[in-house]
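Slides due. Your pick:
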Amino acid sequence: MKLNSIIFLIAILIAAHCNVNNSNADNWPQWRGPTGDSVVAPGAYPTEFSKDENVLWKIKLPGLGSSTPVVWDKKIYVTGGDNGNDSVQSYDWNGKLNWKTNFGPERPGKHKNGSGSNSSPITDGKNLYVYFKSGTVASLTLDGKLNWKLNLQEKFGEDTLWWDLGTSPVLAGGNLVIAVMQEGESYIVALNLEDGSVNWKADRTFPVQKESGQSYTTPIVTEIDGQETIVIWGADRLSGHHPKDGKLIWKCEGFNPEDNPMWRVIASPGVTNGIAVVPYGRTKFCAGVKLGGSGDITSTRRLWERNDLGADCPTPVGRDGKMIVLSDKGQLNYLNAETGKDFWQDAIPRARAKYYSSPILAGDLLYCAREDGVVAVIKIDENGMEVVSQNDMGEKIAATPVFSSGRILLRGADHLYCIGTDN
């Protein structure tokens, strides 16, 4: 083969590889994005917008929901209420409804920013999986055909959470995995993707004080020491589980040494470079844990603890060994994940409203959505932060923003917005 032909062939292969990567980057298959860590692939995203500015389209949603939409192949999937029913809708990239499926009566939310549809859907690119406060779990094709449906609460017992279901399902070991952490029996269950049958169910009940066993966090699926691991945070413990049977591989304790009641957790851990940064103690504490090992790793893998920062709802976001912790009131700590030491501490201009949504990091820009609908765009580096813009969407936001194809999807209390600068 001639040299020019070889070069041409290599160029084609490189281009194809880039197109695949770009296509994958355009998908947002789960709550915190393609890599499950709230870090966006490189791209140019709008920084100035409002309910009227740089809105490519907006649609009125049929009912309440605090879940984050997911995107696959230019199709958007979002769960929420619909005339008192659990529902999932699919929209195209122009905001047109593709299809809608309802599943039966919803259990409405108790919290002012809660709903019966707090849990975000997830897709493997073949099927869509949804989970609701009612206990309903279902699988659908991406064209809206129901594959299977079951109810975890009917199968394994009632939900005993004091507030609204918060955890989202994850995919691990070829299963759909859901963590149920509550008063009384807590467990992890793995459902067969094909028919919804139970592949395994593992106990995760620990002796804790009142409400401290309740967790609204979402598991993290990550590779640790060459092994896919389900990392779960709740009941005053961070634990690693095998995806094939749910068995405990390791656990880290000591997050509630005085055994306090009412230490339920909402924010999931942020992970970077194999280190989890864990907020707890209702905004007052944060700790770093080196993931991995076996058995009780409390004394061997716990790296640091601080009692001067934390987050109740927003999940930290990390990259390249650095972690950003956003507090519910808008304080930002940019820290070294291994040592816990700050590069700097600052704050987004204060408001009465809090942050329930988790921040998203796109390049050097951090997008933070506040419950009153103001989305702050913050430029971040090791030297400090700069407020680029504060964008008022005019309605409550509890869902995490979605980034795809140079556009941002914002799910508000009433509408789904598509933010962009061109069509």
DSSP finds three helices and 34 strands in the chain. Residues 3-26 form the longest helix (24 residues). Helices lie at 3-26, 152-156, 298-301. The two ends are 43 Å apart (CA to CA).
